[in-house]
Amino acid sequence: MRHDAVAQLYFAPSRFDRYLDYAFVGVAGGKVVARAFSVPFAFNIDGRAELPDGGWDEVIRWAHDDQMAGRAPNALSALEISLLPEARGGGNSLALLDAMKACAKAHGFAEMFAPVRPNQKHLRPFVPMRDYVDTVGADGFPTDPWLRTHLRTGARLVKIAPYSMTIVGSIADWSRWTGMSFERSGEVSIAGALVPVMISLEQDYAVYVEPNVWVRYAL
After folding, report:
1. pLDDT of 95-114, one tens digit each?
2. What are the backbone dihedrals phi and psi of residue 138, each rounded to the nearest 5 degrees, phi first?
3. First to last CA, the chain
4. What is the distance between the alpha carbons of residues 151 and 137, in angstroms, rounded to a whole number?
5. Residue 58 forms beta bridges with which residues?
6. Which of 93, 98, 113, 96 shows the shortest CA–CA distance to 40?
7. How far apart are CA 109 and CA 130, in angstroms?
């Protein structure tokens, strides 16, 4: 995930300073055990009547364009919530979500969105995201724990973002990133990936196109 080129529009040191008001850390016993990032952007303006199919990548591009154009944001998008193993459980992810919502309200935003990365989809990489999302429990909520968390705390599922994150590299790049060797072209499942990586030995490149799930919080 660290090799998504669009991430540099947010996390690069020369740009990240612009978003410090929208970044959070969780601290326990004097140690940072969690982090969360979000990005403000302008929504419901010309050309942005719908959330983008490009998901995570595109909302970062939108925010970058807004910065360059001096356009005021009116919405917030979550980007990431990560916790160390010892901090998982106990409602800590909800605390970070609540911090993002409070931040959005403090800036006068009426909506918060998230291109959710379902946290158990990697166990079923060959299942289409739509089929995965439509797999629900007896209570009608998705069986995926992270999607359930969002929907049970007030989010509304909006749409699939079919190409939310795109990561491209040479075969050597992917071997270095994953510690794997690739001996055939075609779809290859990689640990932690939500969908297979497309390998082309003939063209010496591989591409990973990850779908996410847009949700919306009314604040």
Report:
1. 999 999 999 999 999 999 99
2. -60, -25
3. 30
4. 13
5. none
6. 113
7. 29
